[in-house]
C-alpha cells in the first residue's frame, strides 16, 4: 500500500487533469452515502468533530476520515485544527491501495469541483474573477477558475491586508499572465466581476445580492452550517441555482436552507447537481443574462476522483 503525503500531492496535481478526472468520475455509475459527522462534545463552546465520507464505483472504494478541533492550535501548539486521510481500496479485490493526505487533496478537489461547475455555468468569455477569500483555499480556487475560463484579472478581497498581499503574491508567481490586485470595495468589485468565488468563514452574507449584475456566475464553498451563509436570499431567488450534491447540500447549506425557512425559496427550484451537468441530463447556462449560482459543501466522490488520479500517476512514475 502506498503512503502519499501532502508534499507528493502538491508536486503531482494540476488542475486540468484533475478537473477532467472529476468530470469523468461524475459521468460513471457511483454510490455515495450521506457523509457522517459526529460531535465529539456536547457543549456549545467545544465544536470538536469526527467525520467519515465514503464513496465507491466499479473500480475503487474511498473513505475520507477527518478530525476537526478548532481550538487545537491554541491548546496544543504545533498542531493543526484539522487532520484528514483518504484510504483507497481496489473495488474488485478489496485490497488497500493507498493512504493519502486528505487535507491537501481536499483543497485541490474543492477548487476543481468549483472549476468544473464554472465550465458549465460561467460565460465562456468570463475574464474577471473576484476572489472573496484569503485562507487556505483562496489560491486553489483562483487558479482552478483560471484553468477553465480565460481569466485576465483577479481581485482579492479579505479582511487582513497581510493575507491579501500573500495571496496575491502566490497567484502571481504561478500565473504571471494574469493581473492580480487587491479588491477596492465590494460595492464596486461585485458588479465588476464575471465570476465571484467565495470561500470564507463568514456566518453572514458578504454583500447584498442586488450588487450582482446579470450574466455573473457566483460560487460559494466556505459555509457548511444550516444557520450560516455567505450570500443572501435575494441572490438565491434571483439566480439559477446548482449544487455539487443534493444529498449533502440540502442538509448543511444555510445559503439554501435559510431562504427556504423564510418561504422565499424551495429546494425543488435547484436546477441540477454537478453529476447531471456532466452526464448531460441537465442544462447549465443557457444565455448570457442569467445569474448562475453554485453551492458546494464537498463530496466523497470528489475525494475518490482525486485519490485515484494521484494513485495512478504515482503508479506510472
Automatic annotation (TrEMBL):
Gene3D superfamilies registered for this protein in UniProt: NAD(P)-binding Rossmann-like Domain, ornithine cyclodeaminase, domain 1
Organism name: Shewanella amazonensis (strain ATCC BAA-1098 / SB2B)
GO biological process: carboxylic acid metabolic process
Tagged with keyword Electron transport: no
Protein keywords: Lyase
Signal peptide start and end residues: none
Protein name per the record: Ornithine cyclodeaminase
Entry EC no(s): 4.3.1.12
Enzyme category, top tier: lyase
Amino acid at each position: 500500500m502506498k503512503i502519499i503525503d501532502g508534499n507528493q500531492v502538491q508536486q503531482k496535481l494540476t488542475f486540468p487533469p484533475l478537473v477532467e478526472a472529476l468530470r469523468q468520475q461524475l459521468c460513471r455509475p457511483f454510490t455515495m452515502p450521506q457523509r457522517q459527522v459526529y460531535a465529539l462534545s456536547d457543549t456549545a463552546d467545544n465544536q470538536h468533530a469526527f467525520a467519515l465520507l465514503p464513496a465507491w464505483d466499479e473500480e475503487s472504494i474511498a473513505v475520507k476520515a477527518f478530525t476537526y478541533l478548532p481550538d487545537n492550535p491554541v491548546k496544543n501548539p504545533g498542531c493543526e485544527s484539522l487532520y484528514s486521510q483518504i484510504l483507497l481500496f481496489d473495488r474488485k479485490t478489496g485490497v488497500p491501495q493507498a493512504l493519502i493526505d486528505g487535507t491537501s487533496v481536499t483543497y485541490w478537489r474543492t477548487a476543481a469541483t468549483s472549476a468544473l461547475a464554472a465550465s458549465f455555468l460561467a460565460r465562456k468569455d468570463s475574464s474577471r474573477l473576484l476572489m472573496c477569500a484569503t485562507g487556505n483555499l483562496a489560491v486553489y480556487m483562483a487558479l482552478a477558475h483560471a484553468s477553465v475560463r480565460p481569466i485576465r484579472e483577479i481581485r482579492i478581497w479579505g479582511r487582513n491586508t497581510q493575507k491579501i498581499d500573500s495571496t496575491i503574491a502566490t497567484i502571481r508567481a504561478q500565473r504571471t499572465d494574469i493581473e492580480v490586485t487587491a479588491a477596492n470595495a465590494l460595492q464596486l468589485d461585485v458588479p465588476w466581476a464575471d465570476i465571484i468565488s467565495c470561500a470564507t468563514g463568514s456566518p453572514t452574507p458578504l454583500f447584498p445580492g442586488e450588487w450582482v449584475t446579470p450574466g455573473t456566475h457566483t460560487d460559494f464553498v466556505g459555509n457548511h452550517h444550516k444557520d450560516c451563509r455567505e450570500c443572501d436570499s435575494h441572490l438565491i431567488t434571483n439566480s439559477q441555482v446548482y449544487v455539487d450534491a443534493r444529498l449533502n447540500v440540502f442538509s448543511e447549506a444555510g445559503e439554501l436552507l435559510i431562504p427556504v425557512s423564510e418561504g422565499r425559496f424551495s429546494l425543488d427550484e435547484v436546477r441540477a447537481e454537478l453529476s447531471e451537468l456532466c452526464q448531460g441530463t441537465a442544462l447549465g447556462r443557457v444565455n448570457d443574462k442569467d445569474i448562475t449560482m453554485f453551492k458546494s459543501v464537498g463530496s466523497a466522490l470528489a475525494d475518490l476522483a482525486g485519490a485515484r488520479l494521484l494513485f495512478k500517476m504515482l503508479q506510472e512514475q
